[in-house]
Write a structure and sequence with these properties.
Blueprint lengths: L2 H22 L3 H7 L4 H18 L3 H8 L2 H18 L8 H33 L5 H29 L3 H23 L17 H6 L5 H16 L6 H8 L4 H29 L1 H19 L5 H29 L2 H29 L11 H20 L14 H8 L6
Amino acid sequence: MSKESSLKAQFVEGSLSAVTGGFTQQYLSPFAIALGATNQQLALLSAVPNVFYALVHLFTPRIAVIIGSRVRAITWFVIGHGAMVAAAAAVVLLPEVVRVYTLIGITAVEVIFFGLASPIWASLMSDTVDRTEYGRFFGRRNRIFGLISFASSCTAGVFLSLMRDALTGFALLFFTAGVCRIVGGAFLSRMDDLPLEHRKEQQFSYFAFLRRLPKSNFARFVFGVALFNLCLGLAAPYYNAYLLNELRFNYLLYMATVSLATIAGFVSLPVWGRIADRHGNAGVLKVNLALLALIPILWIVWKHPVWAVLMSALAAYVSGGFGLLTMNFIYDATSPGVRTRCISYFHLTNAMFTAAGAALSGRLIGIIPPVVKGSAYLTMFACCGAAAAIAAFAASRLFREVREAEPIDRITLIAHVFGLSLI
């Protein structure tokens, strides 16, 4: 199969995956809230799947070698992921006392399949796409799929607002999303299965990876980003709860908020990608971390729905760059033979730290007094922002650029990001 045919197959799969994400990604927490989830259960919904997502990456490199085919492995795991997304719909049929915990369990199994597929997929795509086109290709790809996800998210929000029984609406959404994911897996099987060279010296354990931390630029990058994600995890379980429980958003207003954020996210992707292609992923990522750390603090400025909508959009605009920049840095910093393993260890470390942040937040929200405008949620946002600012400062000193890039000062870079000057 030609390169063009492979890219067409992944485009169809990516489109269907975007539909799945649009129907579920921003509606998992609302689904849990509709099922009666407490703040502690919302923290578990964030923490437990991340633990499983972390652990599965210990085995992903080995599984890819055992199966012997990246395309076959990805296809199986994507179909398994879709089956679990569809299975979440059945939660509404269970007794109320077990619904939320069953949803947490199904989500944990779902992310196992997703965790098995994602680094192998990233490895295959990094070999399929020309290295010099990473920023442009993945930025454009993410922008297109962001648009599809946006349309799907809008559709989901309108659908839920029209449903008299919200739980039935959620069940139908998750079942449809699962079917889309399964069909997408079938299209992935049509990609060209590029050979992956395996050498003994390229097969190193996670503990060997950790031992390289003092000397390895990539290992320090992973640790720095993971530390930052731990701090962001302090508030991550509660943004949707703040909108739905405290600001009393209905599903239509929630959909509008998510939709605006989605637009902001995919509009930002080509901006971040273009700047990173020219000025390097490392330097741009360090600015991105600083901006991300500021956002939780900005949430507390005004306790009002309008401000919450604007902050959601700003967070998505900056977060879109974070995902793109971290993956493109990995592509630059690793060779094809070790890339699947390095991506797995990156996800493993970050998922463990994110889970730790979410678990800690579940304890803190019941202990820390609501000193910020009488809101436990805003208090957690303030704690998150302060911790993330420290983590961003520390992380920015742990890793360096790995390729030649045109230097740029941070003020000018920020101006470029927000369209205040031309690049």
